[in-house]
Amino acid sequence: MLPARKLNGHRLFPDFFNDFLETAVPEKMCTNAPAINVKENDHGYKIELAVPGMTKDDFKIHINKDGNLVVEMEKKKEEKACDEEKKDCKFLRQEFCYCKFHQTLALPDNVDRENIEAYVKHGVLKIKVPKLPVAKIEDEKRVIEVK
Questions:
Q1: Cα–Cα dist 36/124, whole Å
Q2: Thinking of the domain 26-76+96-133, which architecture would CATH place it in?
Q3: Which distant-in-sequence residues (6+ apart) come within 8 Å of 74 by Cβ?
Q4: What is the pLDDT of residue 21?
Q5: 47 near 68, Cβ under 8 Å?
Q6: Cα–Cα distance, 122 to 50 (Å, whole number)
Q7: Contact 36, 48 (CB under 8 A)
Q8: Which one, of 64, 91, 95, 69, lies nearest residue 80 by Cα?
Q9: Where in the chain are the domains?
Q10: What residues contact 67, with CB distance under 8 A and at least 6 apart?
Q11: Measured at the alpha carbon of residue 45, what is the angle toward residues 115 and 70, in degrees to the nearest 5?
């Protein structure tokens, strides 16, 4: 199937347009970052990213040396033949893309960095960031003596 239609036996667009699409479609990059929701309740924070088509293997999540939460996503284009039996086919148009995303989120002081959890379900990456108990936060406060 070609993206250009024929009208009375003539192509609607010039040949170079169709030839370009039939041979080498440049690799596309995703231009939009995933939508992010951040929710808070008494127990913690929930971060949600819209990531349709992504799997858990496409993500790297860690806390950097500055104590920030870093979410990295990379989805590489799959180079598969059109049909496993026929290796001689070619793409006439290919719009699946390579996506890369990097987001750093500053975490508040009251979060339990040791118990952060993340999972992907139905095209949404969910990260649960629990809060520390108030008593533990009070214990960690320290008065600095001025000399």
A1: 10
A2: Sandwich (2.60)
A3: 58, 99, 100, 101
A4: 47
A5: no
A6: 9
A7: yes
A8: 91
A9: 26-76+96-133
A10: 107, 113
A11: 65
Beta strands per DSSP E along the chain:
6-7, 10-11, 36-40, 44-50, 59-63, 69-75, 99-105, 117-121, 124-130
Q: Looking up tokens 């939009």, which residue turns up?
A: 32
pLDDT digits (tens, 9 = 90+) for 97-138: 678 888 999 998 889 999 999 999 999 999 999 999 876 655
Task: Report CA-CA distances (Å) from 45 to 69, 71, 118, 143.
Answer: 12, 15, 12, 28
pLDDT digits (tens, 9 = 90+) for 9-64: 444 444 444 444 444 444 444 556 789 999 999 999 999 999 988 889 999 999 99
Cα–Cα distance for residue pair 50/37, rounded to 1 Å = 9
